[in-house]
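Q: I have 122 residues here and want to know how they pack in 3D. Can you give me a structure?
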Amino acid sequence: MATLVQVERGLAAPNWLRENLQLLEGGDGFPIDKLTAVTSTAGWPDAKVRLWYAQCYSVVRFLIRTQYRSSFYKFSAHLRDGRPAPEALYRAYGAPYTRMVALEHAWRYELSRSQMAKAGSQ
């Protein structure tokens, strides 16, 4: 979320973010269960930390733009209230988000569409 605010308010993405978003569009990144299980990046190599932040940014941006912004607020509130992530996701976004892997598939599909649109405009 912090990276999203930094980019949206700064009106420019840092170079490391653009580079890592390209990696994600190429299929790199963490499985969603591993991405959401991270509690600390201490001791990680810088490249892995940047990729993790880029993927978190991309998933949060996807969630905010998928439906109403209030859906993301509801999702965050359910997480804050201690609900498991899959339940929070379903309660906020509904079907097809019955499991976290459904989110991963939808997000990856959107990345691939973005990649195809870029290729088509060149």
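Q: Anything worth noting?
A: The longest helix spans residues 46-66. The two ends are 31 Å apart (CA to CA).
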